[in-house]
């Protein structure tokens, strides 16, 4: 196996996984603190997917099980899908319409922070997925 | 270069590119027929990105220029982002709230069809991107 940045067994790989886990956990926590997030499918999906992903994927991958690692890495596509769908809704509520200004009970700032954290988590996951895929193709 | 399904120079590769172009064009046409789509950022972004992508990417790639092909293939991530952000908004309007039932002037069915077509286009593009990336990694 080539020694690429972020590959399993490398310190950089472990740091990437820890970073994914931390940012995903922060995104989950911030989203959960916003009341009524579960009534919007995009927010609920982002929260649920990130939650599932964090607990089943990032920590187990830090144990460097290569054969297991490549399968859940495919879910980085779902992470991006979740973050983007939530972003579409946040932009609709805060910029395209006046809902965030009119409906004061909407926790728009909280949603924005949670989505931003989900994007950072996805970016770190994308690096790991890229490296894993590269390793798999070059074997 | 390995002879993989969908690789440049293969009939399957050309068919994939033609499929991407057709579905993306259909998505653009359907979205453009929905009045007021440009006031929603997610719909506007989906339309603009798909439009740009179709004209600059899919057709030029069918000419089998490998060195040029790998760069725009990265934009498949942006295509997914566009489709997902629009999906988030469509689900918000049609399922999470009653906007589609109350606001009859909203062309919800048209938005749904356009987003579905964008997803099909992205799926075909993802196959091409996957193959191109695999070829690049295994060179």
TrEMBL record, chains A, B:
<feature type="transmembrane region" description="Helical">
    <location>
        <begin position="21"/>
        <end position="45"/>
    </location>
</feature>
<keyword id="KW-1003">Cell membrane</keyword>
<keyword id="KW-1133">Transmembrane helix</keyword>
<feature type="domain" description="Casparian strip membrane protein">
    <location>
        <begin position="7"/>
        <end position="124"/>
    </location>
</feature>
<comment type="similarity">
    <text>Belongs to the Casparian strip membrane proteins (CASP) family.</text>
</comment>
<comment type="subunit">
    <text>Homodimer and heterodimers.</text>
</comment>
<dbReference type="GO" id="GO:0005886">
    <property type="term" value="C:plasma membrane"/>
</dbReference>
<feature type="transmembrane region" description="Helical">
    <location>
        <begin position="113"/>
        <end position="137"/>
    </location>
</feature>
<feature type="transmembrane region" description="Helical">
    <location>
        <begin position="65"/>
        <end position="93"/>
    </location>
</feature>
<protein>
    <recommendedName>
        <fullName>CASP-like protein</fullName>
    </recommendedName>
</protein>
<keyword id="KW-0812">Transmembrane</keyword>
<dbReference type="InterPro" id="IPR006702">
    <property type="entry name" value="CASP_dom"/>
</dbReference>
<dbReference type="Pfam" id="PF04535">
    <property type="entry name" value="CASP_dom"/>
</dbReference>
<dbReference type="InterPro" id="IPR045009">
    <property type="entry name" value="CASPL-5"/>
</dbReference>
<keyword id="KW-0472">Membrane</keyword>
